[in-house]
Amino acid sequence: MAFDRSEVEKVAHLARLHISDAEADEVTSRITDILELIDKMQSVDTDSVEPLAHPLDVKQRVRPDQVTETDRREQLQKLAPEAESGLYLVPKVIE
Q: d(Cα 86, Cα 76) in Å, to the nearest integer?
């Protein structure tokens, strides 16, 4: 894909950026290199490559699902200033 200096200047103008002639040449060169790399990457045949969920073939260790704490809701709600039907009541802060 071709990318020339006039396009860099146009984008710089639209973005309200001031770039010197040397900077415009460097940006043009860098963008052209990036676009060439993208073209090379897109030309690679990937039809036989299986999609990966993760680049490493690892399995996550999962701990057993066990209850480690007891239900203390009633105890904690007794400490609250206001509670009703298992819910904490708080003052309205948004009108």
A: 10
Q: What angle do CA 4, 10, 14 make, to 5 degrees?
A: 150
Rounded Cα gap, residues 32 and 23, in angstroms: 14
Over residues 75-95, the pLDDT tens digits come to: 999 999 999 998 999 988 887
In eight-state DSSP terms, residue 51 is P
85 torsion bin: left (phi>0), alpha (psi -120 to 50), beta (else): left
Both tokens of residue 28?
Answer: 């043009």
Stated pTM of the model: 0.49
3-state secondary structure the chain: CCCCHHHHHHHHHHCCCCCCHHHHHHHHHHHHHHHHHHHHHHCCCCCCCCCCCCCCCCCCCCCCCCCCCCCCHHHHHHHCCCEECCEECCCCCCC
